[in-house]
């Protein structure tokens, strides 16, 4: 008698987070998809080792990590930054971008249409940047920033900060 083949295991399917934006946003910053820690907390860049909030803190001269999450988002909106991810949903085991499968893209054009002051789009890391052809079609400058993820250990914090500062300065996000 032959044994039945084992059922193929599928990684769990995850739903992403809603965009953070205000009509006054000048820069749309796109990650790939929230980490498991971010999804559990329902917060962008919720992993304690992710350098996203420390980068913004250094750029804006204010320790955003000392604030509650909703206060952080208020600061983000007030500074002209919008945050979202390129993927709305995906299958993934763990948190690595390399494990993303069956990704469903977000409606980036739909969000951009609600941002009348949008000047540019920046991708936070390589997986997000894979959709640069989509964001280039929005008709605004598109940048690839070094990932704020703890998995991006090849870039020092200072080197990441310099790259982020250049883009933020170019679009007026360093002034209060």
Automatic annotation (TrEMBL):
InterPro entries: Hypoxan-DNA_Glyclase, Uracil-DNA_glycosylase-like, Uracil-DNA_glycosylase-like_sf
Positions of the Uracil-DNA glycosylase-like domain: 18-168
SMART domains: UDG, UreE_C
NCBIfam families, alphabetized: hypoxanDNAglyco
Transmembrane region(s): none
Record protein name field: G/U mismatch-specific uracil-DNA glycosylase
Top-rank taxon: Bacteria
Gene3D superfamilies noted in UniProt: Uracil-DNA glycosylase-like domain (3.40.470.10)
């Amino acid at each position: 008698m032959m044994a039945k083949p084992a059922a193929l295991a599928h990684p769990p399917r995850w739903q992403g987070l809603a965009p953070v934006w205000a009509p006054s946003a000048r820069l749309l910053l796109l990650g790939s998809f929230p980490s498991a820690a971010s999804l559990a907390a329902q917060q962008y860049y919720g992993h304690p080792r992710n350098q996203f909030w420390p980068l913004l803190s250094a750029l804006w001269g204010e320790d955003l990590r000392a604030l509650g999450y909703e206060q952080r988002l208020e600061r983000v909106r007030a500074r002209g930054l919008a945050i979202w991810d390129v993927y709305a949903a995906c299958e993934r085991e763990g948190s690595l971008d390399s494990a993303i499968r069956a990704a469903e893209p977000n409606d980036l054009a739909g969000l951009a249409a609600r941002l009348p002051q949008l000047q540019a789009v920046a991708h936070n890391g390589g997986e997000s940047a894979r959709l640069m052809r989509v964001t280039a079609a929005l008709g605004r400058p598109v940048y690839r920033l070094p990932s704020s993820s703890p998995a991006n250990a090849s870039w020092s914090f200072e080197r990441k900060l310099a790259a982020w500062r250049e883009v933020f300065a170019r679009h007026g996000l360093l002034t209060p």
